[in-house]
Amino acid sequence: MAMDPGDAFRWDGELTLTRHDPETGATFVIRVDSIRHGRAAGGTRAAHYPSLTDALADAARLADAMTLKMAVSNLPMGGGKSVIALPVPRKDIDTRAWDRILRLHAENIDRLNGIYWTGPDVNTNSADMDIVGDTTGFVFGRSVGRGGAGSSAVNTAVGVFEAMKATARFGGMGGIEGLTVLIQGLGAVGGHLATMAAEAGARLLVADVDSDRIAWAQRFGCNPVPIQQVTTTPCDIFAPCAMGAVVDRAVARRLSASAVVGAANNILADAEAGSVLRDREILYAPDFVSNAGGALHLVGREVLGWDDETVASYTEAIGQTLTLVYQISAADGVPTDVAARTLARKRADAPEPLAR
Ligand code: NAI
Ligand code: PHE
Predict the structure, then answer these.
(1) CATH 3.40.50.150: does it fit domain 5-66+78-142?
(2) Where, by residue number, is the active site (predicted)?
């Protein structure tokens, strides 16, 4: 949900760490939302923010989503997140400065003595986690050659695809074949999702600010949609896979889709959006349920010692969890995001054996 600027400071999580580096102009934020059920984990997002208040608010929202994601997935971890507020967009940071930024970030993490573990997120990847790993052991998602579980993006996409299939079933749309799926953001997750949906016979509409990504998707039959028309173009499933806060109450009122199922963290921009989607009978798959495949991969491989098969079966179970969320929403007459929070709280208080 969107926060007003004051909420960035009134936040009631466990801990906030901030540090500024005059040399690169980067400001580091780590927010640990909860360690009630284990060490906090959540990725490192690097982005250019309008203000430090925005960066703090984003970190709080993202850390909260990680707590919910771990709980609803029955993973024995708490939630946290790092935001590196860059002075300019990531593409304008040179290699030397980026290396310094990652090493300072790793120092900050190390000082927290393991209550917070990081991993990849927007604008960071396994190669970056390898650099972080030179300074601290509290890092998931290093490359396989360096002893990590590698990228979390592929399994995130697999989980989102399971969520799409479950949503199509629950919403009476049948299978994915023949459905029109609009993917916003063809990055590490959205790109994999696009290939899976295309293979399953979906008609794909795609949008990305990066024209190279669009050209790539056109090669396997995707049709581009202008960025400004993403939330007005009719489709069966709208899949936000870029940044969050895509659906506010106004977008929810005009959206021409049967369902919203995406990878982006914090898709809903305000509390009312979920209610509007429910009133309009648009199924919203809460992001922290659908996009848990990355967490299942990283925590499963690096903490719980899961093999490929085990990761795959727990990722498939995302569809069952989501169906349960839809059932709770229907039975209690509440929006799906509220139902998912209820389920997350229940599982946090009494974790279920992981269903297979
Ligand atoms: P990414 O940085 O690889 O991809 C994002 C893509 O969105 C890029 O291609 C970028 O050009 C595009 N984009 C940015 N702004 C856009 C806009 N306004 N309209 C259309 N396209 C735009 O990031 P990644 O890893 O694919 O993550 C995507 C989302 O999924 C993020 O919200 C992330 O927090 C979330 N997520 C990622 C996980 C992971 O394991 N990578 C796990 C769970 C959630
Ligand atoms: N950033 C990803 C997410 O939002 C993957 C991740 C999960 C990173 C857990 C670190 C820890 O789920």
Answers:
(1) no
(2) 81
